[in-house]
User: Which sequence fits this backbone?
């Protein structure tokens, strides 16, 4: 289970994406997510998928490792497509009782499934090529104007960074606890739904205990290092834009412009 979750993990290799400023990657992820909801038509989605494939190649992270992020949300993906397939009105292709599949439902299910898969994969590329500390610095820098509204930008960025870092740790801990409980005779698969929910108690209780213990250890470590929030703090490696970052912003602008053109002139799916 832990190996299927790539969100929050960092994959250390030397690539152009790893060398980019974290602010560029953060903004680029937002731009790509927005583009997924802008494109329209087969050509538009093909362009978005091609751009994602190019990012995977540039990241030098194995494609199989990145695509594991989609496997981690496979259940959500199937449920989303299932409800869109059956609940979208339109031209009926198949009907059995109250169940029916429409042409518009098939198109909507494919579109939502592709959007969700690309969204998760694109977000995983950002976390795989950016360390949690870099991500914290990027968010704090980008959200600096909110300090004028007395928003605790540094604290929020730190919490988000810690949450991302804890995702793979907790998933690995869950995997270890589950294997240990199975070795002791626990059964997580057989029985009805109520029995399965009760069977999760031996898994959830030690997981919560472990999570609180890790949180307490982290708090003690931060206190021992005299951490007191973002006020007056300096950075060992301050963020500075390089030429490659400006080129990346230009590429983003061109990409977004093309997606807007697909939105206006792309046409429908069929």
Assistant:
């Amino acid at each position: 289970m832990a190996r299927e979750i790539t969100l929050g993990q960092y994959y250390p290799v030397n690539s152009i994406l790893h060398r980019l400023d974290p602010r560029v990657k953060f903004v680029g992820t937002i731009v790509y997510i927005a583009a997924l909801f802008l494109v329209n038509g087969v050509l538009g989605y093909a362009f978005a998928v091609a751009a994602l494939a190019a990012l995977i190649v540039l990241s030098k992270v194995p494609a199989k490792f990145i695509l594991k992020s989609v496997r981690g949300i496979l259940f959500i993906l199937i449920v989303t497509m299932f409800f869109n397939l059956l609940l979208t009105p339109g031209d009926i292709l198949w009907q059995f009782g109250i169940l029916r599949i429409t042409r518009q439902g098939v198109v909507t299910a494919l579109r939502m499934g592709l959007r969700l898969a690309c969204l998760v994969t694109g977000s995983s590329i950002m976390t795989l090529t950016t360390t949690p500390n870099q991500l914290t610095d990027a968010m704090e820098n980008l959200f600096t104007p909110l300090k004028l509204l007395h928003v605790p930008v540094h604290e929020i960025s730190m919490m988000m960074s810690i949450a991302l870092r804890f995702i793979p740790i907790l998933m690995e801990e869950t995997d270890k606890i589950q294997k240990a409980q199975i070795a002791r005779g626990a059964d997580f698969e057989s029985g009805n739904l109520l029995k399965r929910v009760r069977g999760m108690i031996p898994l959830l209780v030690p997981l919560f205990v472990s999570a609180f213990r890790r949180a307490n250890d982290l708090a003690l470590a931060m206190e021992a290092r005299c951490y007191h929030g973002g006020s007056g703090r300096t950075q060992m490696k301050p963020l500075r834009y390089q030429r490659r970052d400006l080129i990346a912003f230009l590429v983003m602008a061109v990409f977004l412009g093309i997606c807007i053109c697909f939105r206006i002139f792309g046409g429908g799916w069929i």
About this structure: The longest helix spans residues 153-183. Residues 81 and 112 are 7 Å apart (CA to CA).
